[in-house]
Write a structure and sequence with these properties.
Blueprint (H helix, E strand, L loop, with lengths): L6 H14 L8 H24 L24 H25 L6 H22 L5 H18 L1
Subcellular location: Membrane
Membrane topology: Multi-pass membrane protein
Keywords: ANK repeat, Membrane, Repeat, Transmembrane, Transmembrane helix
Length: 153
């Protein structure tokens, strides 16, 4: 049986959201940048990890038409590509935010090199877990992500 929420509580429940919304009059730019960096870093970490360890894991042995090290989820081709597209889009967008927010910071070159290395690792992991007959299409996904990042630089 569904419970009813009094109208007064409903109005109050919406007002709390306004207290946390961005307000340029009270929020300092440095604090906002730091929060965005934290959020973008968390998104990058989660998407990187899910690309390296795809949902469902990888096959442990080579038999019954699959190869050890290939993503189990890739057996559902359309679903796997939806996952790859959105995961790669989230990773590349979060990296774009990170690089934009740290532009002209000390050690920016080092952050750029580390980020490029991380993206190279992500790309090689995607190729490693994607079955050989799918790898051609995976290149399109990774190329699209690279184009997004090249737009920034």
């Amino acid at each position: 049986m569904a419970s009813c929420v009094p109208l007064g509580k409903l109005k109050r429940s919406k007002s709390w959201f306004k207290d946390f919304a961005y307000n340029p009059k009270k929020d300092q730019a440095g604090d906002v940048r730091n929060i965005l960096l934290i959020v973008a870093t968390l998104i990058a970490a989660v998407t990187f990890q899910s690309g390296v360890n795809p949902p469902g894991g990888v096959w442990q042995d080579t038999k019954d038409g699959h190869v050890a090290g290939s993503a189990i989820y890739a057996s559902r081709e359309a679903d796997f590509y939806v996952f790859l597209i959105f995961n790669t889009l989230a990773l590349s967008t979060s990296v774009l935010v990170i690089m934009s927010l740290t532009y002209n910071f000390p050690f920016h070159l080092e952050v750029l090199v580390a980020t490029a290395s991380m993206l190279g690792t992500y790309a090689s992991a995607i190729f490693a877990v994607t079955p050989a007959n799918y790898s051609f299409r995976s290149r399109y996904i990774l190329t699209a992500a690279a184009c997004l990042l090249c737009y920034e630089f």
